[in-house]
Amino acid sequence: MSKKLKDIILPDLGEGIDGAEVSEISVSTGDIVKEGDTIVVLESDKASMEIPSDFDGEIKEVSIATGEEVHIGQLLAKIECEEVVKKDLQLDTEPEITNQEDSPKEDRQPSKASKTPVAKAHHSNDNVFASPGVRRLARELDISLSHIAGTGQKGRITKDDLNNHIKSQIASQRGTAVSINKEIDFSKWGKIEEIKLSKIKKITGQRLQQAWQSIPHVTQFDKADITKLDQTRRTMNNDLPEGKTKVTFLPFLMKAAVETLKTMPDFNSSMNHSAETLIIKKYFNIGIAVDTPTGLVVPVIRNVDQKSIDELSLELVEISQKARSKKLTPEDMNGGTFTISSLGGIGGTYFTPIINPPEVAILGVSKSRWEKIYNHTEKSSSAAYVMPFSLSFDHRIIDGAAAAKFTGDFGKSVETLSFLENSK
User: Fold this and answer.
1) For labelling, which of 63, 156, 233, 327 has a CA lying 20 to 30 Å from the CA of 97?
2) Exposure string for 138-150, b = 16+ CB within 10 A, e = fewer
3) What ranges in 190-263 are assigned the alpha helix state H?
4) Mean predicted confidence (pLDDT) in 95-112
5) Does this model's pTM top 0.85?
6) 355, 362 in Cβ contact below 8 A?
7) Residues 314-319: what's their mean pLDDT?
8) Residues carrying an active site annotation
9) How far is the C-alpha of 285 from the C-alpha of 305, rounded, in Å?
10) How many structural domains compose the chain?
11) Same-domain check for residues 81 and 131
């Protein structure tokens, strides 16, 4: 069958767009392309669009350059294809309409005899930029593109973005984590070492990925003056009999968290399975993130409100040892109502911890530092031991104002040690 050289020209872009800038050229001379493969990606002030090939064949010439302004009817490339093709530029081509309300009247009922193909213009008011091929596949699979974050120019959704979304959904249903990385031979750039992930890391990764994808996270940042707390803790440790467990900051933070949770019960809740009711828990079981050689685990300290600082200190040591020796049971990990992740012994200023479902909030504690604090009332400055902390919360249940009040109340509880009055 004889070969024929075809011109690929810029078609009518619709919506009054007579030209656009070339942001990406997807082919080179000599490339073999299929019908529907993207030839060039254009950007205008109104839309982002991919111009596909309407032929199978070999690219013989690319007539444009990245950054160039192109106009309707301009030659984009030349392609050599079979004389009998699946679809010619002059044959049946229907424009693909995203939003009929936003489209020109004449485009709503396209004629089968239309001689000028209309490239898909992805309007910014649709908040979805994708090629016709990606849209067709999404329609066939009943996938809403509005749920996918595009990685292309100006948020354009690529084939890889759609494929990664599908992989993620499949992995979520199977209860496994998924990598969005393409298979790459990293050894071609230098020496590598491949280490198998531990079972705990795999499970943790899968759960964190699900939590991040399914919960609308927001993080509130604050700090508290823990000078008094530090002095109290040191005094308690100095008075301890020999051999007794030393007191750390964490038991104080757990008690302060419980005191705050009692006055703001929404933070000690879970959404029910139908997402129609909120289950308020009248008990206070605090999960503590523990870093082990094989990965992160979150054992639970139960009934924190009923235990003293000394009792919590001892239990924390025991549960941490149990975690690091891989002796935690499922019962040790279940039933938490609120989680604390402390990096105070490591470093950092603030971080955004990921919520531990079915909980609705998590507190992240960073390393405390001595700072000079100005007192407006006394008009003087003094040194204070300041602890930065972060609260990530589920925005479906908790709004920003409530989160700001929670961090303020928690900070005040930590500073005044009001919870010690009711401790054993």
Assistant:
1) 63
2) beeeebebeebeb
3) 199-214, 227-238, 250-263
4) 40
5) no
6) yes
7) 94
8) 395
9) 9
10) 3
11) no
